[in-house]
Amino acid sequence: MSEAHPQEGRQSLVEMLRAMVQARASDIHLQAGAPPVVRVDGKLRPFGNRPLTPKDTEAIARALLTPEQWEEMEYRKEMDFAYTIPGVARFRCNLLRQRGSFGLVMRVVSEVIPSFEALGLPREVMEGLAAKERGSSWSRGPRGAARAPPWRPLLTTSTFITPRTSSP
Prior knowledge:
This protein is of the alpha+beta class. It folds into two domains: about 5-110, Beta-Lactamase; about 125-160, no CATH class. It has five helices and six strands. A hairpin with a 3-residue loop joins β4 (about 80-85) and β5. The longest helix is centred in the first third of the chain and has 17 residues, at about 5-20. It starts with 5 loop residues before the first helix and ends in an 8-residue tail after the last helix.
């Protein structure tokens, strides 16, 4: 495996991710042989003209991982993890190695938890769900269909509801 320069990879990655967040993209896809691609309003769009090389994607991968994570990545050939750029955003990442190069998908995870009203959900119903002591709730839909956003305010609300007491 060639030696990549993690600092150079990190610097260019941070610049790319800042631009991605400013463009209001939800995801960025990086793979050798193709320019970066972002998802904006559910549609994939090119994000630059220059195709990434295997060296580029390796430098980015090395910049994201600690030495321990890198060792695990080399063994497993795939890894899910989080990456944060303070003051910019937090990202949920999937890194994989196939056919001798790395592929990476990074999704923006909003630091702001939207209100039920902002999501178009009835507050009384959602607070009632949060207050339940037992049971399960499901959210279904295809990948990228925003299944998680309704759960964030629900979980936040449930932490502020009066604590339940257990019977002796």
